Amino acid sequence: MALTLQDIEALFLRRGHEMYSGEPVTQLEHALQSAALAEAEGADDALVTAALLHDLGHLLHDLGETPTLRGIDDLHQYAALPFLRGLFPDAVLDSIGLHVDAKRWLCATRPGYFEALSPDSQRSLALQGGVFDAAQAAAFIGRDGAEAAVRLRLWDDHAKTAGAPTPGLAHFLGRARRIALA
Q1: In the chain, alpha helices (H)
Q2: Which of 4, 12, 100, 139 has a CA between 20 and 30 Å from the CA of residue 81?
Q3: pTM of the predicted model as reported, rounded to 2 decimal places
Q4: Residue 74 and residue 52: Cα distance in Å, rounded?
Q5: How many CB atoms lie within 10 A of CB 69?
Q6: Mean pLDDT taken over the chain
Q7: Picking from 23-27, 66-70, 77-81, 110-114, which range would have the lowest pLDDT averaged per residue?
Q8: Do 12 and 31 contact (CB within 8 A), yes or no?
Q9: ∠ at Cα 152 (17, 74), nearest 5°?
Q10: Mutual orientation of helices 5-15 and 27-40 as an angle, nearest 10°?
């Protein structure tokens, strides 16, 4: 069953206050900061919406505080996709679904990227399959939506600043509404 924009808003209102595992921000702050960074770089509505919703999977199930400390990969990049399919175009879904592999690609191709990841991101990387080898990296970046997912991943990495000012949820849901499927 697809979520509606009202369902997404209610989910953020119900669970957005929860801390983003291992980081100094809440789930909602992280989502808003990711979307604000995308908007500041001139991303289109689909990519701003993907930035807002890329971690929605964390809110759809409750695995407790910091599941990576218990060796759990929550597969959040896939968890939300069945609920968003039918609401948003593939450009949104692909960026969400590929943002974890984008981290694996960045670790393989960008010197210093791994070292700059937060401890929780480093732990989750190991659980998510680790750094891509050269063949995996080449295959990934050749996929449709991979470049957008890399942009999203970089915003994701920087959206962890306690108290950073952003537009509110209604602003970004307005952008999402513009690209929602009929």
Answers
A1: 5-15, 27-40, 45-53, 56-60, 76-79, 81-84, 90-109, 113-116, 119-127, 134-141, 146-158, 169-179
A2: 139
A3: 0.92
A4: 19
A5: 13
A6: 91
A7: 66-70
A8: yes
A9: 55
A10: 130
Say how far apart CA 114 and CA 177 lie, in whole Å. 35
Phi, psi (rounded to 5 degrees) for 171: -60, -50
Give pLDDT, residue 5.
Answer: 96
Question: Environment class of residue 14 by beta-carbon count within 10 Å: exposed (0-12), middle (13-18) or buried (19+)?
Answer: exposed
Q: Across the strands, what pairs with 26? A: 19
Contact 78, 57 (CB under 8 A): yes
Q: What is the pLDDT of residues 142-169, one digit of tens each?
A: 999 999 999 999 999 999 999 999 999 9
CA atoms 97, 112, 66, 133: torsion sign: positive
Q: Which two tokens stand for residue 156?
A: 């994701």
* Alpha carbon distance 85, 121 (integer Å): 27
Tell me, what amino acid is at 124?
A: S
Say if CB 155 and CB 34 are below 8 A apart: yes
